[in-house]
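Title: Prediction job returns without error message
Component: structure pipeline
Severity: low
Priority: P3
Assignee: unassigned

Description:
Job completed but the reporter wants confirmation the result is attached to the right record. Sequence as submitted:
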Amino acid sequence: MTVMHHAGYVAMVELDEDAGVFHGEVINMRDVLTFQGATLKELRKAFADTIADYLAWCRERGKQPEKPYSGNFTVRLAPDLHRRVAVAAAREGKSINAYVAEALDKAS
């Protein structure tokens, strides 16, 4: 698999060797957006067209398009892990949010 980017949207792409086609799916939103192309040029165009079609569809319905990333996500932890993270953050003089954001940034 490989990753493609367009206008803030991210897609994972796979090759279907039997069909001789690349399939892509936008992964950074809840709505399901897919596209395909036989060449890289076709694939890039299909991705851009899919995003344009999605935005047009939203406009026609008066719907706010889903933003690729809001900056918020919820993580559920076991109580013991939650306690350990809170203690570690406090030791470093940070909020839990800042501590976790820094750890995730280092890991990515």
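Comment from assignee: result matches the submitted record. Helices lie at 40-61, 79-91, 96-107.
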